[in-house]
Amino acid sequence: MSDDSIDFSFAKERLEETLARIRRESEKQAAERKAGRLKGKLTVSLRRDLRNCNISQLLNVKKLCDRFIQDHRTPPTREECRKHYTLFIVISITVANRRYQREFRRTTSKGRKYVVGPYPYMYWRDGGIIKSKYFKRRDEKSLPRKVRAAFSSVSHEEIELIRNQLKAVVERE
Fold first, then answer.
1. How far is residue 70's CA from residue 57's CA, in Å, rounded to a whole number?
2. Which pLDDT band holds residue 132 (cuts at 50, 70, 90)?
3. Is 63 left (phi over 0), alpha (psi -120 to 50) or beta?
4. Residues 108-134, mean pLDDT to the nearest whole number
5. What is the mean pLDDT of residues 18-34?
6. CA separation for the pair 95, 35 (Å, rounded)
7. In b/e form, how buried is each residue of 69-108, taking b as 16+ CB within 10 angstroms?
8. Residue 109 predicted with pLDDT over 70
9. Cα(37)–Cα(50) distance, integer angstroms
10. Do residues 124 and 99 touch, judged by C-beta distance below 8 A?
11. Mean pLDDT of the chain
């Protein structure tokens, strides 16, 4: 029997089945981790690592956790919320642990830069990440009353003046 006549199709099928099973299991584990994060559950590896700590290490972990909890209870700063394409923040309001801003942004289209906005955004912390949410015009009614009042306090004339100044700056670049 020559090497050319050996049929490896059975082995290939088993390999593909095994790879598919491994892929399904890893996707299932990732979904469980994500669902557990939302419910506040700790991962198995984190619990195991904490279990392996001595008393002084656990006390340091407790102090660090208290500091992180305080961070989550305060809104992110304006600098933390700033993205590289934000040109100007018209107004910034904090409510609880969230920061609401109306900001002008720049965009590029066919090599030309444009100024767009002001758009309302909400920023908050999720772990070490600053997350943001854009509010469409129809969703602006769901903003807190304090934020809606502050946003409406900026007149249309002021917004147009800022927009024209930003356009002039962008065109010079």
1. 20
2. very high
3. alpha
4. 83
5. 87
6. 27
7. eeeeeebbeeeebeeeebbbbbbbbbeeebbbbbbbbbee
8. no
9. 17
10. yes
11. 85
Tokens of 9: 């199709």
- Residue 143 contacts residue 102 (beta carbons within 8 Å): no
Q: How far apart are CA 115 and CA 150, in angstroms?
A: 22
pLDDT given for residue 112 in this prediction: 67
User: In the numeric block, which tokens belong to residue 115?
Assistant: 């100024």
Closest CA to 171 of 112, 84, 116: 112
CB hemisphere CA count around 32 (13 angstroms): 9
pLDDT tens, 48-92? 999 999 999 999 999 999 999 998 899 999 888 888 788 889 999
| C-alpha distances out from residue 96 to 20, 47, 73, 80, Å | 46, 30, 7, 16
From CA 50, how far away is CA 130, in angstroms rounded? 26
Q: Is the pTM of this model over 0.90?
A: no
Domain boundaries defined on the chain: 46-75, 78-172
Residue recorded with tokens 């910034």: 92
Q: Which run of H or E residues covers position 48?
A: helix 44-51
Residue position matching structure tokens 């491994």: 22
